[in-house]
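Quick one: co-fold with adenosine-5'-triphosphate.
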Amino acid sequence: MFLQTMVTGLGIGSIYALMAMGYCLVFSILNFSNFAHGAMIMLGAYVGFLFCSIIGLSFFWSLILTAIITGILSIINERLAYRTLREKSAPSLYLIITAMGVSIILENLVYSTIGSNFYSYPKIFSRNYIEIFSSTIGLIDIYSFFVSIICIILLHLFLNYSKMGIAIRAGVSDPVAASLMGANFNVLIRNVFFLSGIFAGIAGVFMGFRYMVYPQMGWITNKAYIAAVIGGLGSLPGAIIGGLILGIIETIVSVYISSVVRDVFSFSLLILILLFKPLGLFGVKLEDKM
Amino acid sequence: MLKITDMNVFYGHIHAIQGISIQVQKNEIVSIIGSNGAGKSTLLGSIAGIIKKTSGEITFEDNQLPAHSYEIVKLGVILVPERRRIFPNLTVNENLKMGAYLRNDNLEIEKDLEEIYRLFPILKKRTKQYGGTLSGGEQQMLAIARGLMSKPKFLMLDEPSLGLAPNLTEEVFLKIKEINQIGITILLVEQNAFKALEIASRAYVLENGRITYSGIGTEMLDNPNIKNAYLGV
Ligand SMILES: Nc1ncnc2c1ncn2[C@@H]1O[C@H](COP(=O)(O)OP(=O)(O)OP(=O)(O)O)[C@@H](O)[C@H]1O
Ligand SMILES: [Mg+2]
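Sure, here it is.
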């Protein structure tokens, strides 16, 4: 029972971590909460469903293609909705409100075109569970955990060893100085949104697979926000740890108390952290702002 | 090499640069001295493209400078900004690599890194240390070194001696001379007027957004007005 709870917790937690990282990437470079991130996750779930269920691609390829598509959608989102505001150096509150607007538009767009039906992904594994030490372990938990780990490692390598990654970290701490080195801030932002969209798409497919696909599923980004706050807003390692912790706590609460109070618990945790440890577990030290 | 004609810069209603014209020839060291708020950083920022000029013309090697800083950097016009602006969350090595952001000649970059570490031995011991944890003097060296990594033709330095102890100031000025000798033209802004005039082939005095004097650096050292106002004699 305990092993099973932990694995499920890590499985869900790793998806929260993916969502929180995508959210955190944008937050750390533009200093605003991109509430349209949830809508990207929702679109990812639909796009993945299209590939997986209607076109009939394998889960793996659906995941990859969805990630690329939401990455591009995320770039378009920035280009159309945020760039003009940025160029007028609007305060971040304006960006936050615009992001909420984008999220409402996208949600309603899906409503009015695809409808409010709930869809579920087809079976992807021949069996959904395996037995280890007499615990039943969900294969999707293992799958999502490993995909997340791979994403985290790739992101880490990108940010620390590629020229563009280093430039993004430079832009996070001082955009003007980065432009004095020849970096075009708009290009840095575009790449950050691409990455953020990739993470949203992957998280969306897993979310859709695990639960259902429906227009309001973007609310789940609240969990990403909680995860990011637990870890310390703006810190990538914090987002990862925060996501995993949240996943495990939620699963423990569902299993040992009741799944009804799960969300009550999560939001109470958010309030407690904001009250007593507003910088989160990882604070934000300069060195690990990203 | 660089020519500014009748440039004006406004911050809202503040007229920070008021019709300035200056020139820098190839291989020169030109200094700009002036008191606080005279407009020195504004002048350099406008050349580097991080501050938008209201009117006037800036040409570099007889071509208009483009509008965006990242395009200006491509031409080899580099600003080492006021207060260094080292990336605190990047290591020394990464800061230097950022300097080479627009270059694709990876082998050359590695060679230049070696060269930089020879010129600034202080940095070599600290390649893996975060920029934010360096001392002020080390940060200044890193800022200059980072500027050099872009292979500048024209290097602008905004108050490189700011906050440095006298012996480090001495060292920074030696480095500037050394950099000039390898063929890099230098436009220097300084509070330390004595040092700035001593090292310069020519110099300008900037007061309230206008050029009030210009001349040969060493001759200006003997000018009684300048002595009075800037050398505290
Ligand atoms: N962003 C800004 N907004 C409004 N006014 C500004 C801004 N930056 C500079 N100024 C004003 O423009 C004038 C010139 O400033 P600048 O920074 O160019 O001076 P400086 O000669 O570099 O001074 P210092 O020696 O103190 O560095 C000052 O009066 C300053 O208050
Ligand atoms: Mg200044």
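If it helps, The longest helix of chain A spans residues 2-30.
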